[in-house]
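Subject: mismatched residue count in predicted assembly?

I count 280 residues in my input, but I want to confirm that the predicted structure covers every chain. Input:
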Amino acid sequence: MTVDIAFWVAAAAMVISALFVVRSANLVHAVLWLAVTLLGTAVVFALLDAPFLAGVQVLTYVGGVVTLMVFGVMLTQRHDGSVASASNVQSLRGAAAAALLFTLLLVALLRSDLPSSAESLAPDTAELARTLLDEHLIAFEVLSLLLLAALVGAVALARRGDDERGASGLPRARPRARGEAE
Amino acid sequence: MTLENCILLATLLFAIGVYGLLTRRQAVAMLLCVELMLNASNLVFVAFARHAGGPGQILAMFALAITVAEVAVGLAIVLLLYRRHGHTAVDAASEARE
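Triage response: the counts match. Full output below for your records.
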């Protein structure tokens, strides 16, 4: 019973904060609302007998990804704080497409016969570690290679513009505003 | 807290992510919406691991790591876009074809 109440509270918090993520005009606020959604997910993970994943979720997502996103917003936000917002027509179309997808998935969910067990079938952390580092060892190593490649790629991409800059570290030419004539 | 409820929650979050991805114009905001959708899929993995067994938690862990890699590369591209155009509205990327 307590678990059910905790689940619904977390679910409500997640949905509301997710709506704020997509609607918030201020990007910093959107990132912080995303952190709330991800924390709610961590709570649901804990309720689903996955305490290790809940910890990993908090560490990598809330600690890592959100921090990275805040830096991304900080480095790319213009000082005047102007926001490129979508038009009403486009917003309506997007909402219709999302609603259609949701309905489709809902129909599929209602029509399928899903397993449900009262006792948990989730592995405990020791079992999880054995599976990860024994059965899926190759995938684990490939994943570490992917992370290395992504790291090197990100640094290479982010540093590419440095050659074009002057000694002051500022771009030589002021970037053109949108729609400005050549 | 049945499997249906968990999948329903994940479906709703995924749909919200799709809505944001279709309506947002800034690259960083679009990355945020992709995060939402990936998060929803992780939720389904873990819910299935709890109710039906199987390697759902392992899959969720891999998805988590791949997400981190995706964010790092994605933000690097956004940074490059900003340096070149002075803003991060994704319409600017279409100029790359010229």
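Chain A touches chain B through 88 residues (CB under 8 Å). Marking this ticket as 'not a bug'.
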